[in-house]
């Protein structure tokens, strides 16, 4: 769960706390400034304005990029997520920040998706992260947004990706409910375990846990 602004204030040193307060004000101001244009475009059923030039990025986006330096790497994910929420970043902004960002910035975008978007429009970002072998990106990709919007086939492969890359399945949001009674997932898990065993390789410890969640009797591979 992402810490609240108040919780971060209690943990950050004075200089980082002041930086965060200023950054969140800038993000809120940008959100308010963008609202009239967005509402006018919706009312007129017009195409939203073109994406802003990367050379004239809003101040909060510059803060988004420098969050790790200002607040420390330990807090960077939480700080960036708060900035995205405060700025009310839309799907176009989230996509641009993901595509142009570092791995750390991409991770923050993934962590913020369920706070900002209701539909599946950002699934390409989740799918892109799941194609990588960056375990922190994979872990961020299987959060609440993926749990709500990935179709069964893609979700099963996301679970297998976690097992394959060593991402703890605790990262998979709604694992218990989505795995329950999933016979196809059980088959895929059993096949994967059999392949690993035949090759003389260890079976990931989490596999038996997920297999049990499907309702299948674990054979303790």
Structure description:
There is one protein chain. With 221 residues, this protein is an all-alpha fold. It is built from 13 helices and no strands. Helices cover 70% and strands 0% of the residues. It has helices spanning 5-11, 14-43, 59-71, 73-87, 91-100, 103-116, 123-130, 135-141, 144-149, 152-165, 175-179, 183-198, 205-214.
Topology (SSEs and partners):
Elements: H1 5-11, H2 14-43, H3 59-71, H4 73-87, H5 91-100, H6 103-116, H7 123-130, H8 135-141, H9 144-149, H10 152-165, H11 175-179, H12 183-198, H13 205-214
Helix coverage percent: over 70%
Query: Unreliable stretches, pLDDT < 50, 5 or more residues?
Result: none
- Tally the helices: 13
Strand proportion, as a percent range, falls in under 5%
Oligomer: single chain
Order of H and E elements? HHHHHHHHHHHHH
Average pLDDT number: 91
Largest sheet: none
Helix-strand makeup class: mainly alpha
What overall geometry do the principal axes of the alpha carbons give?
Answer: elongated
| Gyration radius, in Å | 20 Å
Tell how many strands the DSSP assignment holds.
0
**What is the CA–CA distance across the termini?**
32 Å
């Amino acid at each position: 769960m992402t810490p609240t602004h108040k919780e971060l204030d209690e943990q950050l040193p004075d200089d980082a706390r002041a930086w965060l307060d200023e950054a969140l004000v800038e993000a809120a101001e940008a959100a308010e400034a963008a609202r009239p244009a967005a509402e006018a475009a919706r009312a007129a059923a017009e195409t939203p304005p073109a994406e802003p030039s990367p050379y004239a990025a809003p101040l909060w986006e510059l803060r988004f990029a420098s969050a790790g330096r200002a607040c420390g790497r330990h807090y960077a994910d939480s700080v960036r997520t708060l900035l995205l929420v405060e700025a009310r970043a839309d799907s176009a902004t989230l996509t641009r920040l993901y595509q142009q960002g570092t791995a750390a910035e991409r991770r923050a975008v993934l962590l913020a998706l369920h706070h900002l978007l209701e539909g599946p429009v950002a699934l390409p970002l989740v799918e892109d992260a799941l194609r990588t072998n960056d375990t922190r990106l994979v872990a961020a990709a299987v959060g609440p947004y993926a749990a709500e919007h990935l179709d069964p086939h893609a979700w099963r492969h996301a679970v297998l990706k976690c097992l394959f890359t060593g991402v703890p399945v605790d990262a998979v949001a709604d694992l218990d409910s989505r795995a329950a009674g999933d016979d196809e997932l059980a088959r895929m898990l059993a096949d994967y375990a059999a392949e690993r065993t035949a090759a003389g390789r260890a079976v990931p410890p989490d596999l038996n846990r997920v297999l049990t969640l499907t309702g299948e009797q674990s054979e303790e591979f």
